[in-house]
Design brief:
With 291 residues, this protein is an alpha/beta fold. It has helices spanning 10-21, 37-41, 54-60, 77-94, 116-129, 147-157, 175-184, 208-217, 228-241, 243-257, 264-274, 281-289; strands spanning 2-5, 26-30, 45-48, 66-69, 99-103, 135-140, 159-163, 169-170, 194-198, 204-205, 222-226. Helix 4 links the parallel strand 4 (66-69) and strand 5 (99-103). The protein contains 12 helices and 11 strands. It has a domain at 2-142 and 174-199 and 263-276: NAD(P)-binding Rossmann-like Domain (Rossmann fold, 3-Layer(aba) Sandwich). Helix 1 (10-21) crosses helix 7 (175-184), helix 4 runs parallel beside helix 5 (116-129) and helix 9 (228-241) runs antiparallel to helix 10. The longest helix is centred in the N-terminal third of the chain and has 18 residues, at 77-94. The chain binds NADP nicotinamide-adenine-dinucleotide phosphate. The site of NADP nicotinamide-adenine-dinucleotide phosphate (NAP) has 23 residues, from helix 1.
Length: 291
């Protein structure tokens, strides 16, 4: 039995779908007010709880063989990105869980001080590695599904808002590929106690994204490029009213200001270890947008 946290999220939902496609027993950790009907219909066991509550975490990890931690945090990084994962790891040990798959983030080891999510994830990685559990740590770049709403807006307007340097490179990963890799990690021998950078097969600049949209919808993109200083100004302004929001925006700023891409060696290692061909961003978008 798998336990998937963040089972209603972009990644978690895909993990549950793929597990149920092969009729694997899975318990999805969900919140009561979330939209979990689809998971239930597919035959997932639903565990209703809150990852801020240790008792819920303890109960959810009973009779579990594998854990995939794929929840996000919103604003409460300390409680969810950090503490909930530490608790999950402790409970996994107590309950004799065979393998723990942790979704981290690309660049987590670069020491970004202004990015709470990155700091929390690095601390969780260290705790997991020292735990004695079998583990796989996946460090993905940005998820391709994040671009779907932007593509839909582009379809309507032809406009693409780009914040920061258009030359910044990334290797956006197909969220379906990442789900597949997370699931396979518990059985692929070469994935045991390993850390993988996970990205798509190509390194692209952020300026290329509207061009891909343009090809898909056969429309010339109108790119509105806002420099990062505008974001910084807004963030400082917000900080006057909501210092916590200002701090949590540090993670977004880090993502906007830096490059997050995998090297060809990292991609080769991933494809070899998991015996798969990674999907390009354009293919992912065409599949979902039906173009
Ligand atoms: N998105 C990216 O580009 C990206 C890139 C690199 C790494 N990652 C990492 O990948 C993981 C998955 O990301 P994602 O984009 O799939 O996340 P997401 O779509 O934002 O989903 C977050 C999930 O966490 C759940 N959650 C939040 N607070 C909770 C709580 N208190 N108790 C129980 N569940 C709670 C949410 O449940 P509700 O449905 O109830 O809100 C949702 O299922 C995260 O760890 C993220 O940091 C993401």
């Amino acid at each position: 039995m798998f336990l998937v946290t963040g089972a209603t999220g972009s990644l978690g939902r895909r993990i549950v779908r793929q597990l149920r496609d092969i009729e694997t027993p899975i318990r999805g950790f969900v919140r009561l007010f979330s939209n979990y009907r689809e998971l239930e219909d597919r035959g997932a066991e639903i565990f209703i709880g809150d990852l801020k509550n240790d008792k819920d975490i303890a109960k959810s990890t009973k009779d579990i063989d594998y854990i995939i931690s794929s929840h996000g945090s919103g604003e409460d990084t300390q409680a969810l990105d950090y503490r909930a994962n530490i608790e999950l790891i402790d409970c996994a040990k107590e309950n004799g869980v065979k393998h723990f798959v942790y979704i981290s983030v690309l660049g987590v080891d670069r020491g970004y001080e202004d990015a709470p999510v990155f700091k929390a994830k690095r601390e969780v990685e260290k705790y997991l590695m020292a735990s004695g559990l079998n583990y796989t740590i996946l460090r993905p770049s940005g998820f391709a599904n994040n671009l779907l709403p932007l593509a839909e807006r582009f379809r309507e307007t032809g406009i693409y808002l780009l914040i920061g340097d258009p030359q910044n490179r990334s290797s956006i990963v197909s969220t379906d590929d990442l789900a597949k890799i997370a699931i396979a990690s518990v059985r692929v021998e070469g994935a045991k106690n390993q850390i993988f950078s996970v990205g798509g097969p190509q390194v692209i600049t952020r300026g290329e994204i509207p061009k891909i949209f343009g090809r898909i919808f056969q429309k010339d993109p109108l790119i509105i490029n806002t420099p990062l200083v505008v974001f910084d100004g807004l963030r400082s302004g917000l900080g006057l009213f909501n210092p916590q929001l200002q701090r949590s925006l540090g993670t977004l700023r880090t993502l906007l200001a830096h490059e997050f891409f995998c090297t060809p060696e990292e991609i080769r290692k991933l494809e070899e270890t998991y015996d798969m061909k990674l999907e390009s961003l354009e293919s992912f978008l065409r599949r979902y947008l039906g173009s």
